[in-house]
Design a protein that fits this description.
With 360 residues, the protein is mainly alpha-helical. The protein is built from 17 helices and 5 strands. Bound molecules: tryptophan.
Length: 360
């Protein structure tokens, strides 16, 4: 019988702030689905604080605060510590050890070609060769995150595909160089549609980001949500209600594509049967932005209400948050330790085990 490859999921987030609804449709939703899929043997979710420090090393306060906030985000959307091991990256030293060995297998020019690293270097304004080495090599460290758990699937946004590609190359190179099959090639798991893949900011910009002030956080209260939705970017050419409006690039409709469920119309806007009817009316003219925004507010508020309630519970029970991270990190160390032992064996640097055999 052919050996079935074990299904293992791993993904992670940089703790540089709270998570927002873009994170939800881009990755958290996929994790919730996989944690309930019985064909998955293990599910790991990592708070990648060491990676966050590669470009926030001078702001430890922010990273420390965000580690706890991201853990609260995980628990409030329904990641369940009984099913998902939640771990803190810096508490798993095996990951950093793997990185040292993988660094031998990657050239400087290969990292320089990584499009995500390229654009991030540009965005952060590092001139010439002034990129910190830690930042420059984070794709290699991310390959350690993934391979330490022998992850077969990694739910992330498409901007992470170059990281996955780099990781697969390291896997192949390692297995070839050391003539083994210790490491496993991961696959990316992308969101189901375009709206979820690239949820824009509330101002219509390509990405939600804290610095642009165009995010809706999973922890936003009702009034904050209302204000943000009511001031969202729509179709700048749609001036009067009777004017025909555009759907493409209209952020309110993009959010509806990502969040609106069938039964929302019955509850909040019974004049329409579904999203297609609403869109058609908007395109014809005669449907005002305010009405669509009020509907979107209801949709998002219904989605965020149980998340807020769970967050309030865990804020009042920090010991449960700490326990989830402690147990998740301990499980992670076991798995990563096992892989590291196999890696060292393949590289023939497991001296004491070898000598114990050889000279017994
Ligand atoms: N680079 C990822 C991001 O910016 C975060 C991350 C760190 C990650 N380690 C990972 C994602 C391992 C997937 C797997 O979102």
């Amino acid at each position: 019988m052919a050996e079935q490859k074990k299904k293992i999921m791993l993904t992670g987030d940089r703790p540089t702030g709270r998570l927002h609804i873009g994170h939800y449709v881009g990755s958290l939703r996929q994790r919730l689905e996989l944690q309930d899929d019985p064909s998955y043997e293990k599910v790991f979710v990592m708070i990648a604080d060491a990676q966050a420090l590669t470009d926030n090393f001078d702001n430890p306060e922010k990273v420390k605060e965000s580690v706890f906030q991201v853990a609260l985000d995980y628990l409030s959307v329904g990641l369940d510590p009984k099913k998902t091991h939640m771990l803190i990256q810096s508490e798993v030293p095996e990951l950093h050890e793997l990185t040292v060995y993988y660094m031998n297998l990657v050239t400087v020019s290969r990292v320089q070609r990584n499009p995500t690293v390229k654009s991030e270097i540009k965005m952060r304004g590092f001139a010439g060769d002034s990129v910190p080495v830690g930042f420059f090599t984070y794709p290699i460290s991310q390959a350690s995150d993934i391979t330490a758990f022998k992850a077969t699937i990694v739910p992330v946004g498409e901007d992470q595909e170059p990281m996955l590609e780099q990781c697969r190359e390291i896997v192949r190179s390692f297995n070839r160089t050391y003539n083994c099959d210790v490491l496993v090639e991961p696959e990316i798991y992308l969101p189901p549609n375009d709206a979820c893949l690239r949820l824009p900011g509330t101002d219509g910009q390509a990405k939600m980001s804290k610095s642009l002030g165009n995010t809706i956080y999973l922890s936003d209260d009702e009034e904050t949500l209302r204000k943000k939705v009511m001031s969202m970017f729509t179709d700048p050419g749609h001036l009067r209600v009777e004017d025909p409006g555009k759907i493409e690039g209209n952020t309110v409709f993009t959010y509806l594509d990502a969040f609106c469920k069938e039964d929302a119309f019955e509850k909040y806007l019974p004049e329409y049967k579904n999203l297609d009817e609403l869109k058609a009316h908007y395109q014809r003219g005669g449907l005002g932005d305010v009405k669509v925004k009020k509907f979107l507010f209801e949709v998002l508020n219904e989605f965020l209400t149980p998340i807020r309630e769970k967050r309030a519970y865990f804020e009042a029970h920090p010991e449960e948050v700490i326990a989830a991270l402690t147990e998740g990190t301990a499980e992670a160390r076991k798995a990563a330790g096992q892989t590291l032992a196999e890696v060292k064996h393949a590289m023939q640097i497991d001296y004491f085990e070898r000598w114990a055999e050889e000279y017994k």
